[in-house]
Amino acid sequence: MQILALEYEDLNLISDLRPEGWNDIKVNFDFYVQSPFCFPIKVVIDDVIVGLGATIIHNDVAWLGHIIVHPDQRGHGIGRRITESLVDTAKQNNCETIYLIATNLGAPVYEKVGFITDTEYLFFKDINFDKELLISDQVIPYKEDFKEEISIIDKMATGEERMMHLENSLENGFVYMNNHKIEGFYIPALGDGLIVANNPLAGLELLKLRLKSNDKAAFPIDNLFATEFLHDHGFKEYDVVKHMRLGKIRPYKLENIYNRIGGNVG
């Protein structure tokens, strides 16, 4: 068994590793290979790629993403070896906190490496309203001079400096503006469509905007307002996954997240 850096030339060889129900992993690993703050790896046995994973660095915080083992190779400790290698990369880059989102299948593996559960994420699908959702006129398109306020709102929610991940997708985004102050933002083109807001009115208006064109949502269980909104309209979560941490506890307000980016960056 070898653990090596994933190369661009490997991308056509990984499709068979995509777990059932996941989107095309080639898209994600293409991004990882070409991004200076991402470190993707592969596990090779007999010249065949049987496992994958990536470390995503946000200054002193890392996320572990797309830890995948081919079904025929499970039960041999490969998932743990991948996780340990990704953690080593994070520590070599001076990351004090390491996060990941864990399925029920993966959580026991990560616990053995030392990860603990901070909270959980709720997943909803088939969100279709009988009547058209009306959106506040305080939701307006993104402008370049909104970037600094967006950065502050995002850091308050996550405890991370991750504008390098957000800024390339801001152009077609939206904000909730109240008294000339931004109180929330929505980036449709970033992952699953990130929504962060520092008050419930802003967050729910941006979530309603998203749900006009997308019938799925995923956010931390800490967000009681988003949970209540969907429950009150008859929608129930179909899955719950763990938000896990290794290392330093950071100040964050996960209740401010109304839709996540993805399992690889929160």
Strand order of the largest sheet: 1-2-3-4-5-12-6-11
Q: Which structural class is indicated by helix and strand composition?
A: alpha+beta
Give the H and E element order: EHEEEHEHEEHHEEEHEHEE
The level of helicity is 25-40%
Low-confidence stretches: none
- Helix count equals 7
Lay out the secondary structure:
Blueprint: E1 2-5, H1 25-34, E2 38-45, E3 48-58, E4 61-69, H2 78-92, E5 97-102, H3 107-113, E6 116-124, E7 139-141, H4 147-158, H5 163-166, E8 174-178, E9 181-187, E10 194-197, H6 200-211, E11 217-220, H7 224-232, E12 239-247, E13 257-259
Parallel strand pairs: 4-5
Antiparallel strand pairs: 1-2, 2-3, 3-4, 5-12, 6-11, 6-12, 7-8, 8-9, 9-10, 10-13
Helix pairs in contact: 2-3
What report would you give on this structure?
The protein is an alpha+beta fold and 266 residues long. The chain folds into 2 domains: 2-95, Gcn5-related N-acetyltransferase (GNAT) (Aminopeptidase, 3-Layer(aba) Sandwich), CATH 3.40.630.30; 139-240 and 253-259. Helix content is 26%, strand content 31%. The chain is built from 7 helices and 13 strands. An 8-stranded mixed β-sheet has the order 1-2-3-4-5-12-6-11, sandwiched between helices. The chain is globular. The two termini are 30 Å apart. The model has no long low-confidence stretch (mean pLDDT 95).
